[in-house]
Amino acid sequence: MKTRIRAGQLRHKIDFFEVVKTKNNFNESVESFELIKKVSAGILKNKIIEQSVADGFEFMSVKTFAMRYAKWITPDLIIGFDGKKYQIKNIENPEHRNRELFITTQEM
Known about the structure:
By secondary structure, this protein is an all-beta fold. Helices cover 0% and strands 66% of the residues.
């Protein structure tokens, strides 16, 4: 029997952005984010990582999102969720069945 993603678990909306590099008036390279698509996703894991730096401690948020399979998702995209931007670190297609994706991200 086929297992499916339960739609109720995908109750969060996440935005996928593409990084666009342009030149400003001073001929400097400037990065901006262009919205590609909004999709429904679920949060599987939410971790806070503490790192020691020279002037104290730094805290980073690592989230793993679950969503329906989509071919167009690549590691160079940025995810927007809850007013924060996340860099994609890993994209996993469980059992290579093209049904769902697990996307591990780190807060920028």
